[in-house]
Amino acid sequence: MADADLLLEEVSAYLKPQDVDHVREAIEFSRAAHQGQLRKSGDPYVTHPIAVARILTLLHIDVQAIVAALLHDVVEDTEVTLDQLADKFGKPVANLVDGLSKLDRIQFETREDAQAENFRKMLMAMARDVRVILIKLADRLHNMRTLESMSREKCERIARETMEIYAPIANRLGLNDIYHELEDLSFKHLHPNRYAVLAKALKVARGNRREVVGKILDAIRQRMDEQHIHADVSGREKNIYSIYKKMQSKSLAFAEVLDIYGFRVLVDDVPSCYVALGALHGLFKPIPGKFKDYIAIPKVNGYQSLHTTLFGPFGTPIEIQIRTHEMHRIADAGVASHWLYKSGYTKINDLHKKTHQWLQELLESLSQSSDSAEFLEHLKVDLFPDEVYVFTPKGKIMSLPRGATAVDFAYNVHTDIGNRCIAVKVNHELVPLRTELRNGDRIEVITAPHAKPNPVWLTYVTTSKARSHIRHFLKTMQSGESAQLGERLLNQALHTLGVKPQDMDEAHWNKLLKETGGKTRQDILADIGLGRRLNMVVARQLANIGETVPSETSHHAAITIHGTEGMAVQFAKCCRPIPGDPIIGVIKSGQGLVVHTHDCPTLRGRSGGEQWLDVVWAKNINRTFEISIKLMVANQRGVLAKVAAAIAEAESNISNVNFVSEGEYTALYFTLEVNNRLHLANVMRSLRKIQEVVRIIRVKNAG
């Protein structure tokens, strides 16, 4: 077989003779295991693992990974077991194959669940051994190269998954060539017409611009010689998808994308990089704001280079990368440079440490994701390639995704810092927590011992680490608060049945857990508080009482609302109840107890499927509540200032204001913070004293 012979020839170039024999043995084992199996294209199946192994030889990867690549589908698609592989090829090879095998033997409810679990397993294996993902990327690359035989729907699904997950992983690991090819192939299958048009235009432009490119190359080489800089200068064509992205982001036609060619200058050492940069800025004028120093501040995938964009001949902008030969090796191979270049480069070792740290942090945040959609969202967010570099107060550099906020920074420092964050200083100035960070910002986080995450943070954080830790904290907090509410609701139901809650001992609870399949007492109480279980049903099961309620049952007491129940009790935004209002409670599944005013318009016509509860206010409630009011005021200068002053004098705070002009009058809609109904009456009394106020009402259908 020609492909097998080529593989053996390629591994012979860098592996020992005994290792080449292992590869030959794995080829024969794979061929025998896949005997009779064909790919969708009609080719013998064994051509696929051989092609995957050949891609990996370009990275000079070790014999265990080459063997695992040849055997990566045998456990999944044949009767061969992992134990057989371990006996024949060793435990490390079997572990690599196991990390690559899908979880086909487990039944999942949706394709998304299966996909999420496969990624989770792959990332866990990757954290133990980065070769797992190198083999997986090679496997995906060959599948993308041979995707034409699949149905259109399957092509699009695989291409989208590649664009969203695998290409960013390749970029994150610094595998530049694999990254660009995966992007181009994904683009080709997701948008075949656009790809074909661009490919044709690029081919024409390649011929038209050959002379210009040649002149630029000659000019750069001549300048390097004049400055006595030993340099290798080359031109490169940008990949199709990066050209398409530029056209999209800047709304350009193909003819307007002038920099489809980039130029690379490779020098011997770091000082020469900066000397070369100065020489080139003397040759062509630099475009302001288009210089990036990734040598002083490397990218998180280890990439180092100087980037500059210059005004070239005929007004053509030209992009130039300047780096050392060592930086170029890492730029091309990323984490795989460990195998490709057998050396003691400290930068490569640092890159492996950074990669391992990234994987551990990613797995930590992903492990807190409770469902597939959330897991995949975290994964895609964390693979977002654009970065911003900021400084801690001690001058340490931290990289975050573009668009990251001060809260993202706080969680990146430490989970406890994020959870207790109350304010932040950017460049010594206090700024809102939602402030987006910029390159070079110096960040100082201010914390408080009893502070806790705000659910609003989820609307603007960008990193998966911050998002997952906030969600985890809120879920844990909600569970504890819901369990407290659930216990009160259950006790109320037990009293209704004439049963004393203190009589329900461990034996009753153990019997209930066994019958209902509940994990713990806390879980059942939390479910009651969140409306997932009915308190009366659980009370009957716990007390072992049938459907008939005893005649001596006392009427159930109302639940007392203290206003400090946290997330377990919510106050409806439609009517905004405040202490002093007659209220009613509705248990909504997954949300817990929602408190409404008894005359709330949204409660009319509600179905009987929800659980309604009698609720009353506690006597002394020490907190503020939001209410909505509407004022009709005459259109006169300074009226808004008068209204705001009156509200402040009544010791209330304005949290939101809107207005609608209606001819001679304006309707002002305020959201105010008040303590109770009496406080609201004082506020409204102050507002009525203003001459321009024509009418004032409390709004109870604001939702």
From TrEMBL:
In eubacteria ppGpp (guanosine 3'-diphosphate 5'-diphosphate) is a mediator of the stringent response that coordinates a variety of cellular activities in response to changes in nutritional abundance. This is Guanosine-3',5'-bis(Diphosphate) 3'-pyrophosphohydrolase. InterPro entries: ACT-like_dom_sf (IPR045865), ACT_dom (IPR002912), Beta-grasp_dom_sf (IPR012675), HD/PDEase_dom (IPR003607), HD_domain (IPR006674), NT_sf (IPR043519), RelA/Spo_fam (IPR004811), RelA/SpoT_AH_RIS (IPR045600). PANTHER family: BIFUNCTIONAL (P)PPGPP SYNTHASE_HYDROLASE SPOT, GUANOSINE-3',5'-BIS DIPHOSPHATE 3'-PYROPHOSPHOHYDROLASE. The lineage of its organism: Bacteria, Pseudomonadati, Pseudomonadota, Betaproteobacteria, Nitrosomonadales. Residues 628-701 form the ACT domain. Residues 45-144 form the HD domain. Signal peptide: none annotated. Transmembrane segments: none annotated.
